[in-house]
Design brief:
This protein is α+β, with helices and mostly antiparallel strands. Helix content is about 55%, strand content about 25%. The chain has helices spanning about 5-20, 35-40, 50-75, 80-110, 125-145, 150-185, 190-205, 210-240, 250-290, and strands at about 310-345, 350-355, 360, 365-370, 375-420, 420-425.
């Protein structure tokens, strides 16, 4: 399983925990995620998102030209086609180096954000700097080499460097993901206490809470199982087979086997956490039915303030929402939006394009956009918040969205929805 897939699953768990804050104040008075969101804001990424596309396009062009030159050489076998192949090979290898260096810049930017500080027990930035220096040395060699055999050896060397970089990046993200899983597991006791408070609130109203008690027991059992699985992952990570204490690869074969073990262990834990999230969603649905009110204020459904409706949407596919108020979306997603007097806050790793207006990097690392009529936002593990009137947004991908205010929505493919916004056509 790819790291992006794991984080998208954890997004559903974040949203399920957030659901608890939608209970009546008598049952749950605190947003379980509020503090964490503040603590985990990230600084502005140092890499211009536009450079990703440019570098990738240059690499693709160089690859195509190399492949064409190789075909010509195989067909003609003359001096001219051989020289052209050498030039195209040099360019292809240099563009590949450019692309890898840019990827390392992105990794370094993410690793150096405050939310990751102190989590990884070695200096990832130093490792990345060492690899960049290694790649630049190889670039110099590629520029100087002028035979097919020399360039073939350079290609083998580049593949070896990239293989080690890929393994080390996986290792770094396994550690970050392990920390994130531990953080969520540590919240389980607090969540259980909130479930108990909600059950007691209904008991005080002489409601039959047997179904909620059963769901609460299932949730507790799942979290105990997750804790046991996570202990296995923590033990595995402490061995770091195939890696030096510095986090760099010392044995490629051992490193691959080690990462597969960690990956399999984390996959099992995340599956359990996803099941626990479903239990929380089921709890919310039953609680709302028994309380005869909405999950925000506890008022009867026909007394919901039109300006303060709230709806939670989670899943994979396309969400279309139209209304006035505020929308918060997290996940691996592409969003297009338009509105009146919109204010957009986007996490540092979001690729944002607007048709005008201004932008400002805030102290917490987010970027604020104003004065635009339309915008497109995309990325993995991004978070955006949009406020305004007559907002029209379309979000495609795997995400969790909280819609506040008044409006309508529609979904395509696999989504779960809880809240008071009306379903549109």
């Amino acid at each position: 399983m790819k790291n992006g897939q794991r984080f998208s699953i954890l997004t559903s768990l974040i949203a399920a925990l957030f659901i608890l804050s939608m209970f009546s104040v008598a049952a749950v008075a605190q947003n379980p995620n509020g503090k964490e969101k503040s603590a985990n804001q990230k600084p502005q990424m140092n890499v211009n998102p536009a450079s990703f596309g440019n570098t990738a396009q240059l690499f693709d062009n160089a690859k195509t030209q190399f492949e064409n030159a190789l075909k010509q050489f195989n067909a003609k076998k003359d001096a001219a086609s051989k020289q052209d192949l050498i030039l195209k090979t040099q360019d292809y290898l240099e563009k590949a180096i450019d692309r890898i260096v840019l990827q390392l810049d992105v990794v370094k930017s993410r690793i150096e954000n405050p939310g990751s500080q102190g989590v990884i027990p070695f200096n990832v930035s130093n490792n990345i700097d060492a690899h960049v220096a290694e790649l630049e040395q190889l670039r110099t060699k590629v520029q100087q080499d002028n035979t097919t055999s020399e360039l073939s050896a350079d290609n083998i060397g580049l593949k070896k460097i990239y293989a080690n970089i890929s393994l080390e990046n996986r290792y770094d993200y396994e550690i970050l993901l392990d920390n994130r899983i531990n953080t969520f597991i540590s919240k389980s006791d607090n969540v259980t206490a909130r479930l108990d408070a909600a059950i007691q609130n209904l008991n005080n109203k002489s409601k039959d809470t047997s179904a909620l008690v059963a769901i609460r027991a299932n949730f507790t059992n799942l979290m105990q199982e997750a804790k046991a699985d996570q202990q296995n992952t923590d033990t595995l990570l402490s061995t770091h087979a195939g890696f030096a204490a510095s986090g760099m690869v010392i044995n490629n074969t051992d490193a691959k086997a080690f990462l597969k073990q960690v990956d399999d262990s984390q996959r099992g834990t995340i599956k359990i956490l996803k099941d626990a999230a479903r239990q929380l969603q089921e709890f919310v649905g039953d609680y709302r039915r028994l309380s005869g009110g909405n999950a925000v204020t506890g008022q009867p459904n026909n007394q919901v303030n039109e300006r303060n409706r709230r709806t939670l949407v989670m899943g994979t596919g396309t969400l279309i929402a139209n209304g006035s108020g505020r929308a918060v979306i997290e996940g691996n997603v592409t969003i297009t939006l338009s509105g009146i007097n919109d204010v957009l806050l986007a996490s540092h790793n979001s690729a944002v394009t607007t048709d005008g207006g201004t932008n400002q990097t805030l102290g917490n690392g987010q970027v604020q956009y104003q004065g635009f009529n339309s915008a497109t936002i995309s990325g993995d593990n991004i978070r955006i918040a949009i406020s305004g009137n007559n907002i029209n947004l379309t979000a495609t991908g795997t995400s969790a969205a909280v819609l506040n205010g008044n409006g309508t929505y529609s979904v395509e493919n696999n989504f779960s929805v809880n809240g008071q916004w009306k379903k549109g056509g």
